[in-house]
């Protein structure tokens, strides 16, 4: 026997479809509002940048997003340069610390050698004899 579709089955499915059809425009409206709000926030955060680029012109959402990408890329490059500079300074400082330690060691070594030489000189000491 073939399955039959009853009126109760089709009616139970319709409220879901109807509810979905009624909610979809509302959900889409809320989504657009979130997007617009975020774009306005970006515009206010980067206001001076936008004025430098195109003063006295109305910016479209696409313009705001493109300019934001440019600003973020520039900030990323600056951050990378600062990181490289900091690494370089740290390497130089480590190298300088190593040179200072070597200089301290060579000074200490010279002092010990001078002290030993003075002790061995015939003028300052006689041979040690335990008897």
End-to-end C-alpha gap? 128 Å
Mean pLDDT: 75
CATH fold name of the domain at 20-104? MYOD Basic-Helix-Loop-Helix Domain, subunit B
Count of distinct strands? 0
The CATH first-level class of the domain at 20-104 comes to Few Secondary Structures
Rg estimate, integer Å = 40 Å
Provide the succession of SSEs.
Answer: HHH
Organism: Gymnodraco acuticeps
Pfam families: HLH
Domain BHLH: 19-75
Protein name: Transcription factor HES-5-like
How would you summarize the topology of this molecule?
Blueprint: H1 7-45, H2 47-53, H3 61-120
Main location: nucleus
InterPro entries: bHLH_dom, HES_HEY, HLH_DNA-bd_sf
Subcellular location: Nucleus
Question: How would you describe this protein?
Answer:
The protein has 131 residues and is mostly helical. It has a domain at 20-104: Irregular (MYOD Basic-Helix-Loop-Helix Domain, subunit B), CATH 4.10.280.10. 81% of the residues lie in helices and 0% in strands. Helix 1 (7-45) packs across helix 3. The mean pLDDT is 75. It is found in: Nucleus.
Brief summary:
The chain has 131 residues and is mainly α. Helix content is 81%, strand content 0%. Keywords: Nucleus, Repressor, Transcription, Transcription regulation.
